[in-house]
Amino acid sequence: MKLNNLKNNLYIFSSILISIFIGTLLWEKIILPFDDSIGARGVLVADNYNPINDTIRYIFFIIFPLIIFLFLKFILKKKTIRIREIIFENEEKIAANHKVLGIISLIFIIFIFLEFFSLNFPIPKLDMLHEGDFLTPAQNYLFTNKFWSASYTVHGGSDIFYPLLMWKIFGVESIGSVRISSILLTLLIKLLSVLLSYQLIKTTTLNKENKILFFTIFTSILISMSHYNILTFSYYFSDRDIYVILFLIFFIELFVYSKFKFLSTILISVIASVAILFHIDTGVYLNFVLMTYCFYLFFLRKYNDILLILSSLLIFWILTIYLIGLDEFKAFLDHAKMIALSIDLIHGLKYPEPFFSMGKDPDGSRATRGLLLQLTAGFFVLDYLISNNKTFKSKKIFFALLFLLSFIMYKNALGRSDSGHIRMANDLPILINCFFILNYLLIFIEKKNIIKKILSLKVSFSLSVLILVFFYIINLSSYKINNIKNFNQNFVNYINLQDQDFLDKKTIKVVSDYKKIIRQDNCVQNFTFSLALPYLLKKPSCTKYFSSWLASPTEKQKDYIKEIKTKQPKYILYESPENDYYYYHTLDGLPVSARLELVNSYILSHYKKYDELGPYIVLERK
User: Fold this and answer.
1) Other residues' Cβ atoms within 10 Å of the Cβ of residue 96
2) Which band of pLDDT confidence, cut at 50, 70 and 90, is reported for residue 3?
3) CB count, 10 Å around CB of 537?
4) Residue 345 class from Cβ within 10 Å (0-12 exposed, 13-18 middle, 19+ buried)?
5) Helix crossing, 396-409 with 364-385: angle to 10°?
6) How far apart are CA 355 and CA 17, in angstroms?
7) Per-residue pLDDT tens over the stretch 182-210
8) Distance, CA of 409 to CA of 407 (rounded, Å)
9) What burial class does residue 93 get, using C-beta atoms within 10 Å of its C-beta: 0-12 exposed, 13-18 middle, 19+ buried?
């Protein structure tokens, strides 16, 4: 019987390898016709490459092996999917030693704050493109009292709300205040990681001793997935994942025995809605999972829960419209729609071919690893769905929806396929893989009688403390006594640093000289990738297209020209032929002028060269 089972496992394993190999061979063969009916410009458009190719290739690469796996499980191991059992799961109260878990949580929190108070506050030079995404929209609001109608941003409301919140809290409108927001959001992610780990314990039936070990190891993993580096926008957990983590924390409550289901149902609806205001892509993913959950409730005939979700969404959006105004809401909808339709064409990079790109493409290895992480997460979840294992009682729908969220969120890596975005998209696959591997390992330990006798509650707690000590000894360099003592002073000093402390001499001179040129103008028209310039000049952007390259679609270019005609700026800061990475004269090799041909043509026909300021050309209206 064991020999036959081994043969079946080998057959399944080899078949999966063959299916992955087929998916790899067919990767470059899946080609959809190119279509740029909206007129956007980017690297993929220049290559006549349809960005949907990568999405279709990804779906096939992941789904095909999963189907083979499922089919062979049915044929060789006589597995079946008990649909009714999965849909109509029983809720069971699962015991855990909350006192011990609370002590360990407290230790984690203490070390998290020690690391936070030990931080250095480095002063790297201002990233004119990425940090300009936050600085200029926030300043536009201060001058106009408008959000989306004053700033056409790439991410969503986070580009406006985070800086404004920091400036309001600290009372200082500075670059340091905005950078602090990144640090505080990372601190929040680390604290929420402890809570998420605690919540995930509720989905296991490990004994109390092993739950302590699981919590300690898994929390250590989650905490290490975020980083305090001020300019690290692309670690595994970034600021946009706050909403995903919060959503999962309360979402778990709906699948376990809980007294807070009513409140949790309202909160997941609110979190999904807030997410779409702050980060369009993250909000879309969470709302998709929320609607899928509603379909699940429909099968359960839990109409009251569906009504509660829909009414929560409705009330939230009514209040939002009331607070920001109907015009701002319309601007938000237009913004979200156009970004969703055009961002892959404007910002996209072709996803590296799995395996064959390794060694050729600098991101080839990371791209292949990302696909394999997603695939193994799918195998773990699918195997659990068809198993009779009681390891994670009554949680099959939760894990199915968790994998669905992981699967669709990988779109971030498919849209902008550089190392940073691929790394960010690996967060949930890593979480799922680590969760299942750790659980199965601890289940294996539970079944060993000798270990079971040795592993008492005290031993388990002692092991957890040892793991904690080991984890924090590795990160010992993160704790600095002098920084802890002087944290308050360092914090305040950083917030109050002058803008010029973050600039090189060339930029300081450019800002000084250009201020003299536009001293009588009440706005700045910037046609470069140096998005921070309006902020540095302490004037709003003349048009909402402060980030000009985003206005690439024909419809937006026409609106851009219309706004220029209306505002009639006397001067326009134009791109320079210099190739300096610090100033981002091109993005992916394409300057703004090549991305916005209509706007560029209008500018050159109505403006003439006035002066050159370092890496920029100043144009004057004819």
Assistant:
1) 17
2) low
3) 23
4) buried
5) 160
6) 13
7) 899 999 999 999 999 999 998 887 877 78
8) 6
9) exposed
Per the CB < 8 A criterion, the answer to whether 235 and 190 are in contact is no
Distance CA 264, CA 199 (A): 13
- How is residue 499 annotated by DSSP? G
- Backbone φ and ψ for 558, nearest 5 degrees, come out as -65, -40
| pLDDT for res 467 | 67
- What is the C-alpha R_g of the chain? 27
Give 112's Cβ-side CA count (13 Å radius).
26
- Contact of 225 with 435, CB cutoff 8 Å: no
CA 506 to CA 526: how far, in whole Å? 18
- Looking at 26-35, 98-107, 382-391, which range is the least confident one? 382-391
**CA nearest neighbour of 494 among 81, 130, 182:** 182
Which of 249, 263, 265 has the alpha carbon at shortest distance from 306?
Answer: 265
CA 286 to chain centre: 12
Neighbours of 608 (CB within 10 A): 10
Q: How far is CA 107 from the centre of its chain?
A: 28
pLDDT band at 460 (very low <50, low <70, confident <90, very high): low
Max CA distance (Å), the chain: 88
Give the tens place of pLDDT for each residue, 235-271: 889 888 999 999 999 999 998 878 889 999 999 999 9
Long-range CB contacts (< 8 A, 24+ apart) of 291-300?
292/401, 292/404, 293/251, 293/254, 293/401, 296/87, 296/397, 296/401, 299/87, 300/87, 300/88
Q: What size, in residues, is the chain?
A: 622
Residue 223, CB half-sphere, CA atoms under 13 Å: how many?
A: 26
Helix (H) or strand (E) holding 571: strand 571-574
Q: Model-level pTM greater than 0.70?
A: yes
Using CA atoms, how far residue 470 sits from 137, 192, 200, 216, 475, in Å, is: 44, 22, 23, 11, 9
Q: Which of 80-89, 193-202, 549-558 has the lowest mean pLDDT?
A: 80-89
List the structure tokens of 207. 């004994």
**Cβ neighbours for 68, distance < 8 A, ≥ 6 positions apart:** 15, 16, 19
CA 251 from centre of chain: 18
Mean pLDDT for all residues in the chain: 87
Quick one: tokens of 337? Answer: 């729609």
Q: Which residue has the tokens 């849909």?
A: 87
Contacts of 291 (CB under 8 A, 6+ apart): none
Q: Provide mean pLDDT across the span 529-541.
A: 94
How far is 343 from 86, CA to CA, in rounded Å? 38
Taking residues 290-305, report their average pLDDT.
Answer: 93
The continuous run of DSSP H or E covering 618 comes out as strand 616-621
Q: Can you tell me the distance from the alpha carbon of 306 to that of 301, in angstroms, rounded to the nearest whole number?
A: 9
Please enumerate in sequence order all residues whose Cβ is within 8 A of that of 424, keeping only pairs 6 or more positions apart, or say none: 234, 235, 236, 238, 241, 412, 413
